[in-house]
Amino acid sequence: MTGAAVGYVLGARAGRRRYDQIKSAADRVWNDRNVQKSVNDVVGTVQGFVKDKAPEVQDAVVGQAKKVVSKVKKSDGDEPSPSI
């Protein structure tokens, strides 16, 4: 992302032709087989991590939701209910 921003700024300052050269070089690097393999490896690792941690996150969210509901119920009991 940073590289793209730098490329954009440099390209904008140097003119359209230089911008196109920088963009073309960035595209070649991004589409390189080794770069894509690394990207896919990282994505796979992150997906595995998220899959492993999903039950823990779900338990934490449910636990916090139960605490909030409990607090709301307690505070509702302290105040008189409005009449309709």
Estimated structural class: mainly alpha
Query: Would you list the SSEs in sequence order as H and E?
Result: HHH
Count the helices. How many? 3
Number of strands: 0
Question: Could you tell me the mean pLDDT?
Answer: 84
Question: N- to C-terminal separation?
Answer: 57 Å
Major beta sheet, specifics? Answer: none
Poorly predicted runs are none
Strand proportion, as a percent range, falls in: under 5%
The general outline is elongated
| Domain module count | 2
Oligomer: single chain
Organism: Amnibacterium setariae
Protein name: YtxH domain-containing protein
What labels would you give this structure?
84 residues; mainly alpha; 3 helices; elongated
Summary, kept brief:
This protein is mostly helical and 84 residues long. It has 3 helices and no strands. The mean pLDDT is 84.
Commentary on this structure:
This protein has 84 residues and is mainly alpha-helical. It folds into 2 domains: 1-31, no CATH class; 36-73. Helices cover 88% and strands 0% of the residues. It is built from 3 helices and no strands. The longest helix is centred in the middle third of the chain and has 46 residues, at 33-78. 0% of the residues are buried.
Write the layout of secondary structure elements.
Blueprint: H1 2-14, H2 16-30, H3 33-78
